[in-house]
Amino acid sequence: MISIPIPSFVRRLWSIPFLRFLIVGAVNTLFGYSVFAVSILAGLNYVLAAFVSTVLGILFNFKTTGVIVFESHDNGLILRFFAVYGVTYVISVFVLKVFKTMGVNVLVTAAFATLPMAFLSFVLMKRFVFYARKGLAAKKREGEEET
User: Fold this and answer.
1) pTM for the predicted model, two decimal places
2) 96-144 confidence digits (pLDDT tens)
3) Is residue 7 part of a domain?
4) Domain contains 141
5) 2 part of a folded domain
6) How many domains does one find in the chain?
7) Residue from 64, 56, 69, 70 nearest 27 by CA
């Protein structure tokens, strides 16, 4: 097997969770937006198209975000992950509806909303999904050391 050396600056950049999130997020966003666009072009209502792309995106994103960004293999976090996506889904549909009533195409709105929604998703994932458990595990370990 051929081994390709990775420059140290690439390794340093890859060690930054938010940067990994942005890279993985780009792949996840491309996946989700593609599903949304295909759904719209197939004639689905924007609410249903957003729902379909969100559900499929959750399943795709759970492993990529969990493993690559937050270095978690804990499948038990899937319900928290779904909850965060539920929140972002409601916000996304609200944004789509507001701009649709102003005459803005839903595909254009979805494209411009991706970065703010990605940032919101990272914050919610970090706070409520992946780091919440790490904090509890650290407290448990501290308690074990005291006994």
Assistant:
1) 0.66
2) 999 999 999 999 999 999 889 888 988 999 999 987 554 444 444 445 4
3) no
4) yes
5) no
6) 1
7) 64
